[in-house]
């Protein structure tokens, strides 16, 4: 994310890395602690709490397929993903 924010590689430019890291640190971003297959309702509850407690206005959910891995087989997994997004 730092490289994207800087718009170029930070690997060889420590000064630019430091400036970009400071700017990034000031952004009001929050990360949820979910990894791998997760219960959709738990994720939604955590998102609702973040909206209430931290006045979050935008949520980026990456990656629904990964989050729901192992929760369905064949076409059922796509139906489960659609149902999760409908919530």
From TrEMBL:
Coiled coil: none annotated. Gene3D superfamilies: P-loop containing nucleotide triphosphate hydrolases (3.40.50.300). GO terms for molecular function: 5'-3' DNA helicase activity; single-stranded DNA binding. InterPro entries: P-loop_NTPase, Twinkle-like. Pfam families: AAA_25 (PF13481). This is Uncharacterized protein.
